[in-house]
Amino acid sequence: MDFFHFSFYIVMLLVVTGGIVGFLLALTGGGGSIVCVPLLLYMVKVPDTHLIIGTSAMSVAINALINLAAHAAKGNVRWQTGVVVSLVAVMGALAGSQMGKITDGHYLTLPFSLLMLVVAGLTLKRNHLAGTPLPSPHAAVHPAIVWPSVLALGGLAGFLGIGGGFLVVPALVWFFRFSMVEAVATSLVVVAAMGLSTSASYAMSGKVSIAITCWLIVGGVLGGVVGVALAERLKKREDIINVLYAVMLLALALYMLFKSL
Fold it and tell me: Which of 194, 29, 33, 21 is nearest to 105 (CA)?
């Protein structure tokens, strides 16, 4: 496949893939790379797994920035926390991406999909307890737990070549007591930072396709518009966003488990 002279069919597949990524990022703050990687691998049939990881990291980061602008215009982003979390997470992502480039991705599928199942279960549990008031700010998690966890989160995201939004969103909710909409919007700051750092690491090894990235971004812009609009409509119905988010994780986890068997 010549990645710089696509057929119309391949272009459409790339735009659709980008649209799904942009929609999920805007609505849930996560799921971008988790969807992008298997779609590029199995639907578009890009043969180089590491090229897929590096390219998807870049496209997800840029899509996250685009959707971040839309959320910021609506006042949903908690900038100070987002920037600090990003700085810590990026340190982990840079270290993790170095390990990821020398690891066969096949061996990461099973533990990663199990992790997604755990996060989905915890998200549904939080949704079940949505009527219970959140702890006061004085009951916030101790920094000695928060920051090593954020560093580890970044390392895991870099290692797996993902934006990490599906981990960042619950982390912002559990550690910083954000509402779901605030967590989704602010997670895009972190996803963009980690995605850019991971893709930069892969780009230095020649594992990023600018042509593929451009078509993914075209689709991502279109999907992001729909996702932001839906997220805003559901702003006062966080239970619906929680369920959609958990269902997305469950579906992706089961798919990855099936492919790993």
Answer: 33
30/192 Cα distance (integer angstroms): 11
**Alpha carbons 227 and 22: distance in angstroms, whole number:** 7
Q: Quick one: residue 74, left, alpha or beta (phi over 0 = left, psi -120 to 50 = alpha)?
A: alpha
In tens digits, the chain (261 residues) has pLDDT values of 444 567 889 999 999 999 988 887 787 766 677 778 878 888 888 888 888 888 988 988 888 898 899 889 989 899 999 999 999 999 999 998 888 788 776 666 677 678 778 877 877 776 555 544 444 554 567 788 889 999 998 998 888 777 777 788 888 988 888 888 899 899 999 999 998 998 898 898 888 999 999 999 999 889 988 888 887 787 667 677 778 778 877 887 787 788 767
| CA count, 13 A, side-chain hemisphere, 99 | 13
240 residue type, one letter: I
